């Protein structure tokens, strides 16, 4: 009875995958919008950085300059450690610790803070 009310299963069908990808992109857009409101110069309605975790407890904290990160290098496609040099809305320039890799501008989806617990908000 319950199974029949749910309809036909869509396990990994193309429409299901497209729908899930769209949900993911919408979520990323919402997070980036929240980060922009928090940025310096965002206007009178901006939220101070210290209140970000309180206002958005489910969002990861944004990257900041000088932060240690792990990122996927675009040429080697391997994961390496580095440091954030600049941060944009959806990109960050990463200086990799391996000198031969140099610095690269990467999408925010390819960068993760090294100290993962500190990257999550602690608000309850």
Written account of the structure:
The chain is extended, with a radius of gyration of 18 Å. A hairpin with a 6-residue loop joins β1 (68-72) and β2. The model is unreliable at 43-48 (pLDDT under 50). It has 124 residues and is α+β, with helices and mostly antiparallel strands. The chain has four helices and five strands; from the N terminus they run αααβββββα. The chain has two domains: 2-55; 68-119, SH3 type barrels.
Run of helices and strands? HHHEEEEEH
* Tally of structural domains: 2
Biggest sheet, in brief?
5 strands, antiparallel
For the record, give the distance between the C-alpha atoms at the N and C termini, rounded to a whole number: 39 Å
Low-confidence stretches: 43-48
- Provide the β-strand percentage band: 15-25%
Helix content: 25-40%
Apparent shape: extended
Helix/strand layout:
Blueprint: H1 2-6, H2 14-38, H3 49-55, E1 68-72, E2 79-87, E3 91-96, E4 103-107, E5 111-113, H4 116-119
Antiparallel strand pairs: 1-2, 1-5, 2-3, 3-4
Q: Gist?
A:
The chain is α+β, with helices and mostly antiparallel strands. The protein has helices spanning 2-6, 14-38, 49-55, 116-119; strands at residues 68-72, 79-87, 91-96, 103-107, 111-113. Strand 2 (79-87) and strand 3 form a beta hairpin.
């Amino acid at each position: 009875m319950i199974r029949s009310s749910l309809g036909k299963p869509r396990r990994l069908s193309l429409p299901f995958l497209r729908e899930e990808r769209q949900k993911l992109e919408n979520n990323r857009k919402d997070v980036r919008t929240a980060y922009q409101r928090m940025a310096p110069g965002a206007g009178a309605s901006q939220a101070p950085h210290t209140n970000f975790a309180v206002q958005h407890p489910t969002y990861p904290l944004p990257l900041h300059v000088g932060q240690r990160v792990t990122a996927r290098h675009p040429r080697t496609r391997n994961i390496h450690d580095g440091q954030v040099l600049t941060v944009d809305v959806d990109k960050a320039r990463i200086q990799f610790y391996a000198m031969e890799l140099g610095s690269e501008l990467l999408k925010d989806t390819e960068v993760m803070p090294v100290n993962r617990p500190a990257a999550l908000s602690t608000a309850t």
